[in-house]
Hints:
By secondary structure, the chain is of the alpha/beta class. It has helices spanning 2-14, 18-28, 57-60, 65-74, 90-99, 112-126, 155-161, 178-183, 186-192, 203-214, and strands at residues 34-37, 47-50, 80-84, 104-108, 134-137, 140-141, 152-153, 169-172, 195-200, 221-224, 237-240. Strands 5-4-3-8-9-11-10 form a 7-stranded mixed beta sheet, with helices on both faces. Strands 1-2 form a two-stranded antiparallel ribbon. Helix 5 (90-99) links the parallel strand 3 and strand 4. It is globular.
Amino acid sequence: MQTRDTVNNVLNNVLKNVPFKNLIKTILFRPGEQERAVLTGALRGLRFRFNLRQSTQQWRGVHERLFQRWLSEYVEPGSTCLDIGASDGYYTVLMANLAGPKGAVYAFEPSSQLCERIAYHVDLNGRKHDLAPVTVYDQFVGSETQQSDLLSVTVDSVVHNAPIGRVDAIKIDVDGAEADVLRGASRTLERFHPHLFVEVHSRDLLAEVQHIASRYGYALRLQNAAPYEHRPIELNAFLFSEGRGNRAIELCR
């Protein structure tokens, strides 16, 4: 483990030059997707399809290490988790692995193509790991449910209709609509006080999310993305709780 972490640190320092990094990827990796096991971190040993010419951080296990550590600390066997903005299921699978067969994971991603990838990755890893059952919703999550076509749902409506009897952790990464997701989760936050992890991309959104969460007793702290992740926008930061709702305590920077 120590050797692999050392290699990752060297790669992170050496490959800061983007053109050079892309050249190395072209030399080392064939084009297209490859099925690989994650090398390090909380997802070590879990398998996904990666395009290694585009990015190697998820494969190496160094992508969003802060979030990996947060999930590892707060998702326990039997936990119920909501992955809102699940993308291809990278963290959905981690949640399911940590929660185990007695837990449950609900993943939301308004893209049929990405939902298929989530299902593929869950099935792939379920062959060798005792994962929690995963339910995938091909829907937006917002502040209100659109009854006409159900293209949009709220956290509260899903929790009520499923029904879901407990919620232990919620991750929200929906590219600007994070405050709307929280507004549509008021009853869930009040009832279950789940652990919260929210990604934000603007200072206005940061303030808005903190204000909404504070109504339910959350003390959220800010952590910027790691410099080596080369985020293309001015602000890419994480808000997260160390406690649950009105029992939350601030987590140091």
